[in-house]
Each structure stands twice: as structure tokens, then as C-alpha cells.
## 1
Amino acid sequence: MSLTKQLETLDAELLGRFGAPEQLDGEQLQALLDERARLLALLLEQEMLSPEQVGELMERSKQLKELAEHTRQQLAEQLANMQKGRRSVGAYQKIKHQE
């Protein structure tokens, strides 16, 4: 499989994983991103890209970045809600035990 096809397949997998943030695994995600960086470096080193391919890669990179930022924001909001809930439960337990 060509490097560009490998990268395209990898990007599709990354997009799918960011689409399901509750199932993200940090180590697997890091491994995929490292592999993407390696493939990009090989492509740039070999200068095998046409201007059209460069444009497509840039667009996919931008899409991945935006989706990663959106996913990070979603997870941060979920974490904040969980922490708020825990504080509420703690406050309730404290009041309950005082009675």
C-alpha cells in the first residue's frame, strides 16, 4: 500500500475515533498520531506529493485538529459536570451526617 493510501486510511481511523470520544484510549490515540507523523515525514522526505495531494493532506489535518479540539472540549465539559456532581454529593452527605 502506498504511503498516501496508508495515511488516508489512518486519517479515516482517527476521524472515527474522535467521533466517539467516550471510547478514546489515550495510548492508542498517541500511537496513531505518532504513526501519522512518521508517514507525513516519509512523504515529505521523498517529495512524493503533488500540489493536489498536499492540499488534501492539509484539509484532512485541519479537520483532524478541529475534531480533536472539539472532542477535548466535550471531555472537559463532561469532567467539569462529574466534578460538580461529586461536590454536590459530598455536600449532601456532609449535611445528612450533621442531622
Note: The radius of gyration is 21 Å.
## 2
Amino acid sequence: MIENHVFGGFMSAEPLQQLRSQLLALSESERAELAHDLIQSLDAPRESGAGEAWDREIARRILEIDAGQAEFVDRAEFRKRVSAKLQHP
């Protein structure tokens, strides 16, 4: 039996595969939210004040959007820009 470390215990390959299938059936936004939560769970403890700093940054960005000063790009353009930066840092 193949065992995988899950939640401090072990899960056999079949239940893990079933869980994986269920998770992959989620919508893209649900999978993104789950991925974010899982990655955060692996990160080191948050720095003191990080949450407040993010709250300020989010508020700043919202004000920028409301003032019409934000540049919006669609997903395809975003991926193109990120790909270009990764290829030519």
C-alpha cells in the first residue's frame, strides 16, 4: 500500500486519489482559493503587522480603482506579461 502523509496521519492511495478527483472537479476560483489556503498553511508564521499592511495596500488599490487610475489587463495579457518577465528577467 502506498501511503501519503495527510493531516498528521496516513491516507492510502485510493482515498487520496478520490479526494484529488473531487478537488479537481471544483471550479477554477474554488481551486485557486484552496491552493492559496494550502500554500499559506505551509508558510512560516506571519510577520507582525503583515495583515494590517495588506489591508492598507488593498484599500490603496481600491481607491486607485475608484479614482480611475488603475490599469486593468485581462488574463491573457497578464499571462503574456508574466511569461515575458520570467523568460527575460
Note: Residues 74 and 80 are 10 Å apart (CA to CA).
## 3
Amino acid sequence: MGSEDLFEQPIEDTDYDSSFEWDKPMANLRDIKLQKLLDTQQFKVNAVATDHYGGLEIKFDEDFCLTLFPTLSGKDEFLEYWRLLNNKVKPGSHLVVGPLGAEEKRRRTY
């Protein structure tokens, strides 16, 4: 599973649909693959490590590892490498990491 799966249709062997809306929940390949993984495993965090380049590695039991790393090297203050979201239904804070470091942000309510 890769970050670009976010922009792929959820069914891999279908023709391109020009009305495809990747930003709807469970409407893209990444969300589908991630949900399948979460439905089949219980994850326990064993270790977390960061690096000076904006990377993050979370090691879970059962030899699963989530690795996040920047794919850009710009220094724009609005550039984001990755976000660690609070997936609770209620709005909360989340962590945003970019070229200027980590910053806690509040999720907006709509």
C-alpha cells in the first residue's frame, strides 16, 4: 500500500471513471486496502522512531511496520510531509510534520 493509492479507484481492474472522487471516505484504493488490513489484525505499538529528515517509523507486533518519509525537500512553511490524525469522531488535535518540524493542529469542525 502506498500514498498514491489515495488517488486510485477502489477496484483496480476497472476502467477509469471520470467522476471518481478520491477524497470521499472508502472511495479510493488506499482506504479499501487499509480497512482490509485493520479488519484482519489487532495492532499493538512496540516502538516509535523519528529521524532528522521528517521520517517516522512505528513498529507493531506481528512484524508490521509503518514507515512515513518525506518525498519533497522544499522549505515552504505550508508544505506537509505527513499528518498523524486522531480518528475519533469528535474534532481533536493531530500532528503535522513538515520541513519546519512538527506542529500540533486542531481539526476544524464544519
Note: The radius of gyration is 16 Å.
## 4
Amino acid sequence: MFVVPFIFISSDYLFKTSLIFAIILFMVMTAMIADFSSVLLDTRDQAILWTKPIDARTLHAAKTVHLCIYLILLTGALGLPAAIAGLMRFGLGFFSSFSLEF
């Protein structure tokens, strides 16, 4: 919701979308580092799960899927309000180009 005001500044589309994507990228990367450093770097799960018949590839795949789902939902939550505001302000052309870049 905080990136919506950047849609209404008076400049070209490229500057607006670049600024919005830079803010969203910074927020997503900061959230990923803060939330998943304990998940990706924690070695305590090895002591528990490696005694079970779980392959290392399965464990890494589960971590990767969990991370991807979280990042997709977080990026959608941060970018969707700006996309909707752009749809209302500039029409379907801006929304489709914003969604394709997103």
C-alpha cells in the first residue's frame, strides 16, 4: 500500500515502475534475509531429520518450495496494490505491462 503514491507522481511510466520495483525488491530481499536466515542456515534439523529415512534432496526441495511460496505471496502482497492503482489511473495497458514485468 505504501508504493501506491508513487503511481500518482508526475513523470514517465519507466521511472514510476522502476521506482516501485526497486522498493519491492528491497523489501522482499530484506524480508527474505530476516525470515529465512534461521531456516536456511539452521543445522539443528539435520540432527533430527537425518535419523529418519529422508533424503537430503527431499529436505532441500521442501525448503526451496517453502521459500518460493513465501516470496511469491510476499511479492504479490507488496505489488498488487500498486498494480490495481495503476489499472485505475492509467488503464489496462499500464496494468498489463506492470504485470508482465512483475
Note: The radius of gyration is 19 Å.
